[in-house]
Write a structure and sequence with these properties.
- It is a single chain.
- Helix content is 44%, strand content 13%.
- The protein has 12 helices and 8 strands.
- The chain has an 8-stranded parallel beta barrel, surrounded by 6 helices.
- The longest helix has 21 residues, at 255-275.
Length: 307
């Protein structure tokens, strides 16, 4: 038994798994969540419980990451399968090019089929210090996407950066690379976090002008602590608006005030996106059901109905 499944006794799948593209096409508006797996086995139960609390809110779907640098990769599938089978919430399983071989990708896809997971987010992933990408079977996400599509009836998503990928020289170069991923079979896109809606609108205009017509879901991360500001630029390259900088300055010594203001800022972002006709929002929850719950409460009717 592989490590991915060793933490569960039994999985069954009785219904045809729902593809993310079907959800995006069917619903007028969607709200989905991202969670992450534990890094080590001793944290598995704690993280599983946290992700279950998020799943209990019944988002339209959830994605489960590999963890930072792939640190939780072996636990992604158990967490994902538990969410889908226990709560009936469709899940996206992240796969990365980092350290990839055709054998280990085939192995993961085989077990995904067994437990009824049909949605994959194909990513390059962050290159670990000292790693040599030339040794990977797949150097970029477009190659991984094409391979996954060739291995069965999977719905494959991709990531995109509204303020360009950190490795790209220009936004136009980045979108050209994004087009390669779409041409390789990518079915939908989810953005890295952004903090200024105007950035997202400009990005989508450029994407459409480049001939990319697949759904683009807006990725939103509530900034609930001052510490998060230190990581935003590193993780996403996102510019921090003056309003949010002012919030951080005002609540630098008030953690509860910062949390409330940060959630309020995210709610304003989402409300603005929905009002502007953006259909699909993906919330980076950081495994916090409490934060996700407050945001869900701000948009009654988005979840739990056909809307």
């Amino acid at each position: 038994m592989l490590p991915e499944l060793a933490v569960h006794d039994h999985f069954t799948t009785e219904t045809e798994p729902l593809k993310i593209t079907e959800i995006l096409e069917k619903k007028e508006r969607t709200l989905s969540f991202e969670v992450f797996p534990p890094k080590t086995y001793d944290k598995f139960d704690t993280v599983r419980d946290a992700t279950e609390a998020v799943a209990a809110l019944k988002p339209d779907y959830m994605s489960v990451t590999f963890g930072a640098g792939g640190s939780g990769a072996r636990y992604t599938l158990p967490i994902a399968a538990n969410i889908e089978q226990k709560f009936g919430v469709p899940v996206i399983h992240h796969l990365t090019c980092v350290g990839s071989t055709t054998e280990n990708i085939d192995e993961k896809l085989m077990f995904m089929r067994m437990v009824g997971v049909c949605n994959v987010l194909a990513l390059r992933g962050d290159i670990p210090d000292g790693d040599d990408p030339s040794s990977w079977a797949f150097k970029h996400a477009d190659a991984l996407c094409a391979y996954i599509k060739s291995r069965g009836d999977f719905c494959v998503g991709g990531a995109c950066y509204p303020e360009k990928h950190p490795d790209a020289q220009t936004i136009d170069e980045d979108i050209a690379n994004l087009k390669k991923k779409v041409d390789a079979g990518c079915d939908f896109l989810t953005t890295q976090l952004f903090l200024d809606n105007a950035v997202f609108y400009r990005f989508v205009e450029k994407v459409r002008a480049a001939g990319i017509g697949i759904p683009v879901t807006a990725g939103i991360m509530p900034i609930t602590s001052v510490k998060q500001f230190d990581r935003i630029a590193v993780l996403s390259g996102s510019k921090i608006p003056e309003k949010l900088l002012s919030i951080a300055a005002r609540y630098s010594d008030d953690s509860e005030g910062m949390r409330a203001a940060g959630i309020g800022f995210a709610i304003e972002q989402i409300a603005g996106l929905y009002a502007s006709g953006v259909k699909n929002i993906h919330l980076y929850t950081m495994n916090s059901a409490a934060v996700a719950r407050e945001i869900v409460a701000a948009f009654p009717g988005v979840l739990g109905g056909e809307n």
